[in-house]
Amino acid sequence: MGDSDTRKIRNICILAHVDHGKTTLADHLIAATGGGVLHPKLAGKLRFMDYLDEEQRRAITMKSSSIALHYKDYEINLIDSPGHMDFCSEVSTAARLSDGGLVLVDAVEGVHIQTHAVLRQSWIEKVTPCLVLNKIDRLICELKLSPMEAYNRLLRIVHEVNGIMSTYKSEKYLSDVDSILAGPSGEVSDENLESIEDDEEDTFQPQKGNVAFVCALDGWGFTINEFANFYASKLGASTSALQKAFWGPRYFNPKTKMIVGKKALGGGSKARPMFVQFVLEPLWQVYHAALEPDGDKGTLDKVIKSFNLSIPPRELQNKDPKILLQAVMSRWLPLSDAVLSMVVKCMPDPISAQSLRVSRLLPKREILDKGADSNVLAEADLVRKSVEACDSSPEAPCIAFVSKMFAVPTKMLPQRGPQGEILNNFTEEGGISESDECFLAFARIFSGVLRSGQRLFVLSALYDPLRGESMQKHVQEAELQSVYLMMGQGLKPVTCARAGNIVAIRGLGQHILKSATLSSTRNCWPFSSMAFQVAPTLRVAIEPSDPADMGALMKGLRLLNRADPFVEVTVSSRGEHVLAAAGEVHLERCIKDLKERFAKVSLEVSPPLVSYKETIEGDLSNAVEDLKLFSSGSDYVEKITSNGRCTIRVKVMKLPPTLTKVLEESADLLSDIIGGKLGQSAKSLEMHTLSLSENESPIEVLRKRIVDALESDFLCGNENEKDQAEKCKDKWLKLLRRIWALGPRQVGPNILFTPDYKMDHDDGTILIHGSPYVSLRLGLADNSSASDIAAITSSELTQPLYGEAESLESSLMSGFQLATAAGPLCDEPMWGLAFVVEAYISPSTMQAGDSEPNQLSEQYGLFTGQIMTAVKEACRGAVLQRKPRLVEAMYFCELNTPTEYLGPMYAVLARRRARVLKEEMHEGSPLFTVHAYVPVSESFGFADELRRWTSGASSALLVLSRWEALPEDPFFVPKTEEEIEEFGDGSSVLPNTARKLINAVRRRKGLPVEEKVVQHATKQRTLARKV
Ligand SMILES: Nc1nc2c(ncn2[C@@H]2O[C@H](COP(=O)(O)OP(=O)(O)OP(=O)(O)O)[C@@H](O)[C@H]2O)c(=O)[nH]1
Ligand SMILES: [Mg+2]
């Protein structure tokens, strides 16, 4: 075995929006090349890759799974992935293992939200995409388009998909779904569509053969190659010339037998582009002949004869015209040939693919430490080189990546090994209690040969070979019990597998939680982490119906956590078991799995726990005012510790929105930088900025992002306020030199600034100065400003208080962390706030000699606690004073609705406090696409309600998108006359939405809720009954 075998491998995945036909397409590919696991008659109906009961019941795919196919002399590993948003983590795991991606788009529905997501995923993972335009039959039978109209529609989709790819390529894209709103859809009108010349740069070009036109349901499809080959002799042109001419505005002049552009044809001519004339029109004719009552049945015979199709008489004589049509079409233009020949031709083999992908998989490390062990570095370099070359020789280091763990019932495992020996599957290492389910690793071998029985190192994503001993917990040794090739649900044991293959591995259940790198050496870095597009946000608390089942539930949760790459299981501060899932469908499946497979007990599930944040009112319009108040004003909240020795003053201001967003999105990176872990952690950065070139330092990138954020906050406003905006920005830049800490948990979107030194009192008290640690780390401040501090403090050094003030700094910061973790409204974290805390310490009145030393230290302990509480209370008080607001999470929602259901759909949206952003008619179809923001708290049961009210005709997809402050004042009580007139005198006003949400959270958390049950009930009068 050698390179030439590896060159014959293709690892591909199918990616698309939900229901665009991935599993149906996979069925046909399996039927044609899967070695008989699926009968061609069942292709498209069985949905072979959806082998879970729940998948079949709901008819959606929920996990990615792989199957090995043989096409000609090629080995193709095909991974089917889910399209539903709730399972998009499975798309990440599929893309990581693949080199090529078939991106499907429904020709009727066009590009959708998840199409964007999968294109982005393939781009991030450097997977080579090919476009498959599916459901062409719907253009003919459902929409009844003419060939010319169909062509325009296809052209538009190709154009749109290319537009999306080019935004990724030019690195202009924004990280969130809002970019979809700014997407290229619908900006091309029909007149100029035709004149669009394909750009050389376009990713997808039918003339290059990386776009296929298919009908997965009926099993036919083609690329332009098929037709170019066929017409070459007929038209007397070369195949390659025809390939170029069969897309775009190219026309055939029958008189001159020349291919010409539109101009050369002259106006008024009724000529159609060659794609319409030679490709679509014949298709349409066949469909008409078969399905229309007046169709010319001779057309079918002509096709059968001229292409020499052998169709069994049973199908030929079938009364159902659809069956005859399918029989003809699937033999004339077999789907699997069209798609797989495209795969083989346009998608890279593992050797070329890995050299392309290595920069993403194993980014080059920046080694700052000059004294690093050169042996380790040399070996790590060898590993990177063999991954780059996809070296499949037995001597090469063995490197594999596990993208997820999945559970299989142990009884489903093959009973015999590769040599036919009988295996005892029940001696699973997890002990008897877990033997019903066995965990397999879904992995790809990137270098060397993997053997069953081999011992390998399991490296977690945090492993660093240069930090020897301290890294023990991130590396383990494990024995691979078995290696399997995957056939959907079926597993085929093998003794070994080589680089470039996708396998399932048994024996790692105890070693890997979700993903890991396997390696034959300790001396290499783990693969970079996968990028997930959403975070699990839907959280519920779970408890067993019978408290005695607690043990079973905990075991079940542990198993579920391992089996599903995307759930998060945590224990809340109040001791509840909290399960976080990506969305409702995902949650429902997790609960079902828990009940039926993993815990096997009956469960109580709480209503969803929604997260909120707390902030204060304000926007950039009064930024100048805010800044003034913040830096000088006397608008502070004061607290004095109970021993009277420390006075704390806190001021708060809102952060500019983009800065908040940057801080929030860069949390991982910030924690690395602040924690001083940087050096090799380009990894976490890469998930955020893909534009990072290999030699740019992450700190620099982050600093630039922060400065850019300020720029976009202040300098995008209108022209006449430019001066002021510039001033604000400068002030902010100055402020950013004083970042003492971020919070909560050291990395959140709230800033603590060090106090202004000029504000020192001269009444014998000492201010806790602090030092701008974060600014220094980020390079926003340099040591010269830090030495200023040193200058000030050196004069104070003589004072005995100085030491005490310095030692109290950490309690002050803890107070800030506590406050930002739990705001005053309902103990939810604060969001986008800037604080200045001035703490003045006065000398102790007690003489040092007066008390025992241990009493003194006890006193000191008490004092630190008091400062912490006082700072926390003061911060919370400051927020309450500055018009607090509740911030809620919003889903970006894409809805598709037929025109007649627009009314009910809007009714549902209105009930859910949704904000509609845009509504767009789909050309040539009765569908409307509506984009809206829906608050997370209102989203439960949203899809169900929508389905009920629109008789199942509308569909909605939700993606978590952003945080938004509710404009309402939660403490609003009508005061002025007008307000009383409008809202009543306060006794009869219902609590506003913000208040209601806050109360609900407070009740859940067991915090006091101020509520008057009945205030002015009308007195019930019993009328005297006079008899
Ligand atoms: N008319 C028509 N229907 C199709 C075609 N391909 C698939 N379908 C139908 O589209 C629906 C969805 O097909 P699936 O293959 O399950 O779609 P999927 O992309 O795997 O869906 P998820 O895995 O849930 O994202 C099914 O009802 C199919 O019968 C086609 O070419 N023409
Ligand atoms: Mg599917």
Largest sheet: 8 strands, antiparallel
Low-confidence stretches: 172-176, 184-191, 428-433, 679-695
List cofactors, ions and other ligands. Answer: guanosine-5'-triphosphate, magnesium ion
Strand content: 15-25%
Radius of gyration: 33 Å
How many strand segments?
Answer: 34
**Adjacency order of strands in the biggest sheet:** 14-13-19-10-11-18-15-16
| Proportion in helices | 25-40%
What is the tally of helical segments?
36
Please provide a written account of the structure:
The strands form 7 sheets. This protein has an 8-stranded antiparallel β-sheet. By secondary structure, it is of the alpha+beta class. The chain is built from 36 helices and 34 strands. The N and C termini lie far apart (110 Å). Magnesium ion binds at residues 22-23, 50, 61.
In a nutshell, what does this entry contain?
The protein is an alpha+beta fold and 1027 residues long. 38% of the residues lie in helices and 20% in strands. It has an eight-stranded antiparallel sheet. Strands 2-3-1-4-5-6-7 form a seven-stranded mixed sheet, sandwiched between helices. Strands 25, 26, 27, 28, 29 and 30 form a six-stranded mixed sheet that branches.
